[in-house]
Design a protein that fits this description.
With about 140 residues, the protein is mostly helical. About 65% of the residues lie in helices and about 5% in strands. It has one domain. The chain has a two-stranded antiparallel sheet. Helix 2 packs antiparallel against helix 4. This is RDD domain-containing protein.
Length: about 140
Amino acid sequence: MNNYAGFGKRLLARFLDVMILTILIGGLFYIFTGEYSINFEKGVAWDFFYTLYLVIVPLIWSGYIIGKRICNIKLIQKDGHKVKLSNTFLRELVGFHLIGIITLGISLVVSTFMVIFREDKRAIHDIVGGTYVIES
C-alpha cells in the first residue's frame, strides 16, 4: 500500500508553508500599506488567501503545496488519483475550518492524535475530503 505521511512531516510542511507565505504575503501587505502590523481585517484576509491557496494549489501542482513539496509529501484522493476541487474544498473549508470552528478547536487536537495513532494517518479533514497525505 501507500507510504502514509506521519505527523512530523505533515507538521513541518505546514510550518514551512506558513513561514514562507507569511514572508511573501507580509511583504505584499507592506508594499501596499506601508505597515508590518496585521490588524483584524488583514488577519481575515490572510486566512482567506491561505485557505484559497490550500484549496487551489494542490489542484494545479498535482497534490503539492510549497511545504509539502519541500517535505516530499503530497495530497491524493482516497482511491489514489489526483485530488479534485471537491476534495480540497471539503478537506479545507468543511473538514478543517468549519468543523474546527464548531468544535472550538477540539477537532484539531483529535486530528493530531488520529494522524499519530491511525495506521492510515488520516485526520478528520482527510476523512471529510476523501484524501490521504502520502510520501512521494
